[in-house]
Protein backbone atom coordinates (compact mmCIF):
# COMPACT_ATOMS: atom_id res chain seq x y z
CA UNK A 1 0.00 0.00 0.00
CA UNK A 2 1.12 3.53 -0.75
CA UNK A 3 1.33 6.30 1.77
CA UNK A 4 -1.38 8.27 -0.04
CA UNK A 5 -3.81 5.50 -1.03
CA UNK A 6 -7.23 6.88 -1.81
CA UNK A 7 -6.19 10.52 -1.51
CA UNK A 8 -7.02 13.27 -4.00
CA UNK A 9 -4.27 15.82 -4.61
CA UNK A 10 -4.32 19.11 -6.47
CA UNK A 11 -0.85 20.13 -7.65
CA UNK A 12 -0.39 23.52 -9.29
CA UNK A 13 2.37 24.11 -11.79
CA UNK A 14 2.36 20.36 -12.31
CA UNK A 15 3.30 20.22 -15.99
CA UNK A 16 7.03 20.59 -15.33
CA UNK A 17 9.78 20.85 -12.76
CA UNK A 18 9.13 20.28 -9.08
CA UNK A 19 5.34 20.24 -9.51
CA UNK A 20 5.54 17.49 -12.11
CA UNK A 21 7.81 15.40 -9.88
CA UNK A 22 5.50 15.83 -6.88
CA UNK A 23 2.43 14.87 -8.91
CA UNK A 24 4.13 11.69 -10.12
CA UNK A 25 5.46 10.85 -6.64
CA UNK A 26 1.97 11.22 -5.18
CA UNK A 27 0.50 8.99 -7.87
CA UNK A 28 3.09 6.33 -7.12
CA UNK A 29 2.00 6.53 -3.46
CA UNK A 30 -1.63 5.90 -4.42
CA UNK A 31 -3.19 9.33 -4.97
CA UNK A 32 -5.32 10.54 -7.86
CA UNK A 33 -4.09 13.87 -9.18
CA UNK A 34 -5.65 17.09 -10.39
CA UNK A 35 -2.91 18.46 -12.65
CA UNK A 36 -3.13 22.25 -12.67
CA UNK A 37 -1.08 24.47 -14.94
CA UNK A 38 -1.45 27.50 -17.19
CA UNK A 39 -0.08 25.63 -20.22
CA UNK A 40 -2.17 23.69 -22.71
CA UNK A 41 -3.02 20.09 -21.91
CA UNK A 42 -0.71 18.93 -24.70
CA UNK A 43 2.21 20.39 -22.73
CA UNK A 44 1.26 18.25 -19.73
CA UNK A 45 1.34 14.95 -21.61
CA UNK A 46 4.39 13.58 -19.79
CA UNK A 47 3.01 14.04 -16.30
CA UNK A 48 -0.43 12.73 -17.26
CA UNK A 49 1.09 9.63 -18.84
CA UNK A 50 3.34 9.05 -15.83
CA UNK A 51 0.36 9.22 -13.48
CA UNK A 52 -1.48 6.69 -15.64
CA UNK A 53 1.60 4.46 -15.66
CA UNK A 54 1.50 4.50 -11.87
CA UNK A 55 -2.03 3.13 -12.07
CA UNK A 56 -3.75 6.30 -10.90
CA UNK A 57 -6.30 8.63 -12.43
CA UNK A 58 -5.78 12.30 -13.26
CA UNK A 59 -7.57 15.26 -14.77
CA UNK A 60 -5.95 18.34 -16.24
CA UNK A 61 -7.37 21.77 -15.45
CA UNK A 62 -5.83 24.73 -17.25
CA UNK A 63 -5.65 27.47 -14.64
CA UNK A 64 -4.15 30.89 -14.05
CA UNK A 65 -3.51 30.75 -10.31
CA UNK A 66 -3.31 34.54 -10.11
CA UNK A 67 -6.90 34.87 -11.37
CA UNK A 68 -9.70 34.42 -8.82
CA UNK A 69 -12.33 33.20 -11.27
CA UNK A 70 -9.92 30.72 -12.86
CA UNK A 71 -8.92 29.29 -9.48
CA UNK A 72 -12.50 29.01 -8.27
CA UNK A 73 -13.49 27.20 -11.45
CA UNK A 74 -10.58 24.77 -10.98
CA UNK A 75 -11.58 24.04 -7.40
CA UNK A 76 -15.19 23.46 -8.39
CA UNK A 77 -14.13 21.07 -11.15
CA UNK A 78 -11.82 19.13 -8.84
CA UNK A 79 -14.44 18.69 -6.13
CA UNK A 80 -17.16 17.88 -8.67
CA UNK A 81 -15.01 15.15 -10.17
CA UNK A 82 -13.68 13.53 -6.99
CA UNK A 83 -16.02 14.69 -4.25
CA UNK A 84 -13.23 16.23 -2.21
CA UNK A 85 -9.60 17.33 -2.26
CA UNK A 86 -7.33 15.99 0.49
CA UNK A 87 -4.03 17.59 -0.50
CA UNK A 88 -3.22 20.93 -2.12
CA UNK A 89 0.31 21.65 -3.30
CA UNK A 90 0.79 25.31 -4.17
CA UNK A 91 3.76 24.96 -6.46
CA UNK A 92 3.05 27.24 -9.44
CA UNK A 93 5.59 30.03 -9.65
CA UNK A 94 7.47 32.32 -12.00
CA UNK A 95 10.87 33.99 -11.84
CA UNK A 96 12.37 37.05 -13.49
CA UNK A 97 15.44 39.14 -12.67
CA UNK A 98 15.82 42.89 -12.26
CA UNK A 99 17.47 45.28 -9.86
CA UNK A 100 14.81 46.92 -7.74
CA UNK A 101 15.88 50.42 -8.83
CA UNK A 102 14.87 49.66 -12.40
CA UNK A 103 12.25 46.94 -11.88
CA UNK A 104 9.07 47.49 -13.88
CA UNK A 105 6.03 47.60 -11.62
CA UNK A 106 4.38 45.12 -13.98
CA UNK A 107 7.15 42.59 -13.25
CA UNK A 108 6.67 43.00 -9.50
CA UNK A 109 2.91 42.57 -9.81
CA UNK A 110 3.18 39.53 -12.09
CA UNK A 111 5.69 37.64 -9.91
CA UNK A 112 3.92 38.42 -6.64
CA UNK A 113 0.57 37.71 -8.32
CA UNK A 114 1.52 34.17 -9.28
CA UNK A 115 3.86 33.27 -6.43
CA UNK A 116 1.93 34.69 -3.46
CA UNK A 117 -1.57 35.61 -4.62
CA UNK A 118 -1.78 32.17 -6.26
CA UNK A 119 -1.30 30.16 -3.03
CA UNK A 120 -3.74 32.49 -1.27
CA UNK A 121 -6.43 32.02 -3.92
CA UNK A 122 -5.97 28.25 -4.21
CA UNK A 123 -5.89 27.76 -0.45
CA UNK A 124 -8.99 29.89 0.01
CA UNK A 125 -10.82 27.97 -2.71
CA UNK A 126 -10.11 24.53 -1.24
CA UNK A 127 -9.54 24.87 2.50
CA UNK A 128 -13.27 25.20 3.23
CA UNK A 129 -14.09 21.72 2.01
CA UNK A 130 -11.07 20.34 3.91
CA UNK A 131 -12.39 21.95 7.09
CA UNK A 132 -15.81 20.49 6.40
CA UNK A 133 -14.21 17.02 6.30
CA UNK A 134 -11.99 17.85 9.28
CA UNK A 135 -8.89 16.69 7.41
CA UNK A 136 -6.47 17.98 4.80
CA UNK A 137 -2.95 19.05 3.92
CA UNK A 138 -1.77 22.24 2.25
CA UNK A 139 1.87 22.32 1.14
CA UNK A 140 3.30 25.58 -0.16
CA UNK A 141 6.45 25.58 -2.25
CA UNK A 142 8.58 28.50 -1.12
CA UNK A 143 12.30 28.98 -1.80
CA UNK A 144 15.49 29.31 0.17
CA UNK A 145 15.72 32.81 -1.33
CA UNK A 146 12.69 33.72 0.75
CA UNK A 147 14.87 33.01 3.79
CA UNK A 148 18.23 34.51 2.77
CA UNK A 149 17.41 37.04 0.06
CA UNK A 150 19.08 37.47 -3.29
CA UNK A 151 20.36 40.11 -5.69
CA UNK A 152 18.17 41.25 -8.60
CA UNK A 153 15.21 39.19 -7.40
CA UNK A 154 13.51 41.36 -4.78
CA UNK A 155 10.06 40.56 -6.16
CA UNK A 156 10.72 36.82 -6.13
CA UNK A 157 12.28 36.94 -2.66
CA UNK A 158 9.36 38.97 -1.30
CA UNK A 159 6.84 36.59 -2.82
CA UNK A 160 8.52 33.50 -1.37
CA UNK A 161 9.04 35.10 2.04
CA UNK A 162 5.34 35.91 1.89
CA UNK A 163 4.57 32.26 1.17
CA UNK A 164 6.42 31.28 4.35
CA UNK A 165 4.45 33.86 6.33
CA UNK A 166 1.18 32.75 4.76
CA UNK A 167 2.00 29.17 5.71
CA UNK A 168 2.48 30.07 9.38
CA UNK A 169 -0.63 32.23 9.57
CA UNK A 170 -2.93 29.72 7.89
CA UNK A 171 -1.47 26.87 9.95
CA UNK A 172 -2.46 28.69 13.13
CA UNK A 173 -5.99 29.21 11.79
CA UNK A 174 -6.77 25.65 10.77
CA UNK A 175 -4.51 23.08 12.49
CA UNK A 176 -6.94 22.58 15.39
CA UNK A 177 -9.64 21.85 12.80
CA UNK A 178 -7.71 19.03 11.15
CA UNK A 179 -5.93 20.79 8.28
CA UNK A 180 -2.13 20.89 8.42
CA UNK A 181 -0.28 23.60 6.50
CA UNK A 182 3.47 23.49 5.86
CA UNK A 183 6.00 24.75 3.34
CA UNK A 184 9.00 23.44 1.47
CA UNK A 185 11.80 25.86 0.64
CA UNK A 186 14.08 24.11 -1.87
CA UNK A 187 17.51 25.37 -2.74
CA UNK A 188 18.64 25.57 -6.39
CA UNK A 189 17.13 22.55 -8.14
CA UNK A 190 17.84 21.37 -11.69
CA UNK A 191 14.62 22.43 -13.42
CA UNK A 192 13.78 24.47 -16.54
CA UNK A 193 13.81 27.55 -14.31
CA UNK A 194 17.43 26.95 -13.31
CA UNK A 195 18.37 26.25 -16.92
CA UNK A 196 17.66 29.90 -17.72
CA UNK A 197 20.47 31.10 -15.45
CA UNK A 198 23.86 32.16 -16.86
CA UNK A 199 26.95 30.01 -16.49
CA UNK A 200 28.46 32.81 -14.40
CA UNK A 201 25.56 32.63 -11.95
CA UNK A 202 25.64 28.83 -11.85
CA UNK A 203 29.38 28.76 -11.10
CA UNK A 204 29.07 31.36 -8.36
CA UNK A 205 26.13 29.57 -6.76
CA UNK A 206 27.85 26.20 -6.84
CA UNK A 207 30.82 27.73 -5.03
CA UNK A 208 28.46 28.96 -2.27
CA UNK A 209 26.75 25.63 -1.68
CA UNK A 210 28.37 23.43 0.99
CA UNK A 211 27.32 20.35 -0.98
CA UNK A 212 28.87 21.82 -4.19
CA UNK A 213 26.07 20.69 -6.51
CA UNK A 214 22.52 21.58 -7.43
CA UNK A 215 19.67 19.41 -6.25
CA UNK A 216 17.32 17.26 -8.28
CA UNK A 217 13.53 17.15 -8.17
CA UNK A 218 13.75 13.64 -6.73
CA UNK A 219 15.49 15.14 -3.71
CA UNK A 220 12.48 17.39 -3.07
CA UNK A 221 9.65 14.89 -3.55
CA UNK A 222 10.32 12.82 -0.40
CA UNK A 223 9.65 15.93 1.68
CA UNK A 224 6.41 16.54 -0.21
CA UNK A 225 5.33 12.95 0.40
CA UNK A 226 6.23 13.23 4.09
CA UNK A 227 4.12 16.34 4.60
CA UNK A 228 1.15 14.90 2.70
CA UNK A 229 1.14 11.54 4.49
CA UNK A 230 0.47 10.24 7.98
CA UNK A 231 4.22 10.42 8.62
CA UNK A 232 3.91 14.21 8.67
CA UNK A 233 1.07 14.38 11.17
CA UNK A 234 2.94 16.54 13.71
CA UNK A 235 4.33 19.13 11.30
CA UNK A 236 2.41 22.40 11.63
CA UNK A 237 3.46 25.71 10.06
CA UNK A 238 6.95 24.41 9.32
CA UNK A 239 9.26 25.26 6.44
CA UNK A 240 11.41 22.27 5.48
CA UNK A 241 14.52 22.94 3.45
CA UNK A 242 16.06 20.51 0.96
CA UNK A 243 18.64 23.12 0.00
CA UNK A 244 22.11 21.57 -0.01
CA UNK A 245 23.17 23.68 2.97
CA UNK A 246 22.35 27.04 1.40
CA UNK A 247 20.28 27.75 4.53
CA UNK A 248 21.10 26.28 7.92
CA UNK A 249 18.65 26.90 10.76
Helix percentage: 40-55%
How many structural domains are formed by the residues? Answer: 1
| CATH architect. name | 3-Layer(aba) Sandwich
Strand segment tally: 7
Question: What's the helix-strand series?
Answer: EHEHEHEHEHHEHHHE
Largest sheet: 7 strands, parallel
Describe this structure in words.
The protein is built from nine helices and seven strands. The protein has 249 residues and is of the alpha/beta class. The chain has a single domain, classed as NAD(P)-binding Rossmann-like Domain (Rossmann fold), CATH 3.40.50. Strand 2, helix 2 and strand 3 form a beta-alpha-beta unit. Helix 3 runs parallel beside helix 4.
Task: Describe the structure concisely for a colleague.
The chain has 249 residues and is α/β, with parallel strands linked by helices. It has helices at residues 17-28, 45-53, 68-82, 105-133, 145-148, 154-174, 192-195, 199-208, 221-228; strands at residues 8-12, 32-37, 58-62, 87-90, 136-141, 179-184, 239-240. It has a seven-stranded parallel β-sheet, sandwiched between helices.
Give the arrangement of secondary structure elements.
Blueprint: E1 8-12, H1 17-28, E2 32-37, H2 45-53, E3 58-62, H3 68-82, E4 87-90, H4 105-133, E5 136-141, H5 145-148, H6 154-174, E6 179-184, H7 192-195, H8 199-208, H9 221-228, E7 239-240
Helix pairs in contact: 1-2, 1-9, 3-4, 4-6
Amino acid sequence: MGKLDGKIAVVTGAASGIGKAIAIAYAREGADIVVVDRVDKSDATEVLEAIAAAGRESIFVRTDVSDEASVNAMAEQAVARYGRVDILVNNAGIFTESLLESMPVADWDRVVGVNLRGPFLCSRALVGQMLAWGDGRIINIASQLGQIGGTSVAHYVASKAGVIGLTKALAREVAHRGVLVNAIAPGPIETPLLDSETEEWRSAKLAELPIRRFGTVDEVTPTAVLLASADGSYYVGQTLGPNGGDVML
